[in-house]
Amino acid sequence: MESRRDVFQAIADPTRRQIIEMLLKKPLNVNEIAENFDVTRQAVSLHVKILAECDLILIKKQGRERYCEVKIEELNQVAKWVNYCRQFWKEQFGELDKYLTKIQSNKLSDHDSTEQ
Amino acid sequence: MTAQNNSRDFVISYEFNAPKAKVFNAFSTAEALNEWWGPVQTKNSVVSFEFKSGGIFHFKMESPGGTNYGRFVFGKIQPYDLLEFTNSFADEHANVVPAPFDISIPDRIFYRIIFTENNGKTTITMTGQPVDATPEQEVGFISINKGMQEGFGASFTQLATYLDKSNA
Questions:
Q1: What pLDDT is attached to residue B7?
Q2: How confident is the model at residue B57 (pLDDT cuts 50, 70, 90)?
Q3: From CA B145, how far away is CA B140, in angstroms rounded?
Q4: Are B124 and B25 in contact (CB under 8 A)?
Q5: Rg of chain B over CA atoms, in angstroms?
Q6: Which of A69, A105, B57, B99 has its CA 20 to 30 A from that of A6?
Q7: Other beta carbons within 10 Å of B20
Q8: Is residue A110 predicted with pLDDT exceeding 90?
Q9: Which domains does chain B have, with CATH numbers?
Q10: Does the beta-carbon distance from A14 to B163 stay under 8 Å?
């Protein structure tokens, strides 16, 4: 399966997460973003391109500059997923807890029977 | 800008009244997973299971509404301290498929579980993040590990705060 261009693809990379964080503070152009990283401007430019393809940022022209802005409503998907995931694992660990209690009490009763 | 690598916000912790070998082993055999793993709404069963780095755990989830499959691909396995895997929805051949419901979730999610024991009780701490999926990463977790050090890091703590504010 091809990897999709979606909000999760956008945030899967640590550099892209940092770019999003920076853009949440204020819109920046690619040069301003690149100043904050050790990687090349080309590498930053590629991350910006991926973020735009994932529909997570908007690139606005202002004169000769192109400014990047985060599309906040898209980030809400991340919050929704995190909540879903939290709920799912809470439930799973609840089941695991029951299982562990069961095998431990079985063991205790085995132990009791050998002592009898 | 300084990257703050020490804060992670996508972390789930849970304490079990059992030693860590027992908790770890609940992930390490098909027999154990059959007992507890899978959504509570569905009837879950293990299709295949190979507990080694790169090995696949393929499982079936049946409900009146239909049958879905899921899979883990294991990464690092360090008994009884650490376990890594990616989790996805899958087809009957264990190929990754998108989640079969409305809410959008990542196709592949990388999880790392750390087991710590104290006075016979075990705390597991689980960190999760979407995978920037390429075949190399899927098998070796090469750059995922790098990403994982930052986890759902400072960005997401700030994001959560930001979203709270903007939704208020």
A1: 30
A2: very high
A3: 9
A4: no
A5: 17
A6: B57
A7: 21
A8: no
A9: 11-130 (3.30.530.20)
A10: no
| pTM of structure | 0.76
- B154 Cβ partners below 8 Å, 6+ apart? A21, B3, B4, B5, B7
- B10, closest residue in chain A (CA to CA): A82
Show the CA angle centred on residue A30, arms to residues A16 and B156, nearest 5°.
Answer: 25
Chain A residues inside the 8 Å CB shell of B156 = 17, 78, 82
Q: CA-to-CA distance for B73 and B80, rounded, in angstroms?
A: 18
Chain A residues inside the 8 Å CB shell of B159: 20-21, 24, 75, 78-79
Cβ–Cβ of A3/B159 closer than 8 Å?
Answer: no
Per-residue pLDDT, B10:
65
More confident residue, B50 or B160: B50
| pLDDT confidence of residue B165 | 53
Q: Is the pLDDT reported for residue A5 higher than 50?
A: yes
A100 closest CB neighbour out of B12, B23, B109: B23
- Which residues make beta-bridge pairs with A66? A61
Gap between the Cα atoms of A10 and A41, Å rounded: 18
B73 touches B95 (CB < 8 A): no
Phi/psi at B56 (nearest 5 deg)?
Answer: -115, 135
| DSSP notation for B88-130 | EEE-TTS-EE--SSSS---SSEEEEEEEEEETTEEEEEEEEEE
Amino acid B155: pLDDT: 43
Tokens of A12: 């899967």
- Does the structure's ipTM exceed the value 0.95? no
Q: Kindly state the tokens that stand for B163.
A: 């979203």
Please list, residue by residue across A9-18, b when 16 or more beta carbons sit within 10 angstroms of its beta carbon and e when fewer do. Answer: bbbbbbbbbb
Which amino acid, one-letter code, is at A96? L
Identity of the residue numbered A21: E
